[in-house]
Amino acid sequence: DTGVSQDPRHKITKRGQNVTFRCDPISEHNRLYWYRQTLGQGPEFLTYFQNEAQLEKSRLLSDRFSAERPKGSFSTLEIQRTEQGDSAMYLCASSVGQSEQYFGPGTRLTVT
Amino acid sequence: GESVGLHLPTLSVQEGDNSIINCAYSNSASDYFIWYKQESGKGPQFIIDIRSNMDKRQGQRVTVLLNKTVKHLSLQIAATQPGDSAVYFCAENMEYGNKLVFGAGTILRVKS
After folding, report:
1. Distance of alpha carbon B8 from alpha carbon A28, whole angstroms
2. Fewer CB within 10 Å: N-end or C-end of chain A?
3. CA A22 to CA A70: how far, in whole Å?
4. Which residues have a Cβ under 8 Å from the Cβ of B42 and sit 6 or more positions away?
5. A-chain residue closest to B91, CA distance
6. Nearest CA to CA, how far is A82 from chain B (Å)?
7. How open is the CA angle B57-B61-B64, to the nearest 5 degrees?
8. What contacts A110, CB < 8 A, 6 or more positions away?
9. Cβ separation of A99 and B42 shorter than 8 Å?
10. Three-class DSSP category at A84
């Protein structure tokens, strides 16, 4: 499968714990995006990278959230001191420049 | 604020009929629009896109229409099949290929 992959698919954590998600984009896609989706809503933009540079961050991305794409390939999204309000599906997408974004299957986070 | 929205939250159609899903957008400066299909537990799947210099684009069994005068976007699915049952999102792209702004989604239910 050469699509966008995300790991893990599901994560259950206790409030206050840190979690890290990984996204592997489609090979040679230079842009990588993170979105968050809650039940019944469309995805909301969090941040995006062009190669290894993080070019935009949403105000939704509080200081507890950090994203990296160190070598311009895979990316990680870390949430520190998780809160119940962080429970959501975290989606990763990739694209070649200004073109359609292809989404991964998402990581579903449940904070108890 | 500016947003993308949908007129109908749920659409039920008979198998074999044509489906039309509508979307309104508010940012007249948006230049790129995408329709995504999302099945339960999966990430959004790209269906078709259209740029603001076009008013119609056809794919396999799908057609997207863009009416910039009234800021309206529609997705037409011909000969709807049970496998088309999903949530459909329109998304708006501002600022040349950066973040997508999604609407809330329309549930399409296909009755056999």
Report:
1. 38
2. N
3. 12
4. A105, A106
5. A42
6. 22
7. 30
8. A10, A11, A12, A13, A87
9. no
10. helix
The minimal CB distance from B103 to the residues A42, A103, A105 is found for: A42
Structure token digits, residue B109: 């239910």
The 10s digit of each residue's pLDDT in A39-93 is 888 999 999 999 999 998 998 888 999 999 998 899 999 999 999 999 999 999 9
A20: closest CA of chain B, how far (Å):
19
Contact B100 A103 (CB under 8 A): no
Q: Cα-flanking dihedrals φ and ψ of residue B83, to 5°?
A: -70, -10
Q: Does residue B1 register a pLDDT over 60?
A: no
- Beta pairing partners, A10: A108
Distance from CA of A34 to the nearest CA of B (A): 9
Q: Which residue of B42, B46, B102 is in closest CB contact with A100?
A: B46
Is the bond leading into A8 cis (omega within 30 degrees of zero)? yes
B99 touches A: beta carbon within 8 Å: yes
User: What is each CA distance from A50 to A80, A93, A101, in whole angstroms?
Assistant: 24, 12, 13
Q: What is the DSSP letter of B68?
A: T
Where do we find the tokens 């842009």? A31
Contacts of A30 in chain B (CB under 8 A): none
Question: CB within 8 A of A79, min separation 6: which ones?
Answer: A18, A19, A20, A64, A65, A86, A109
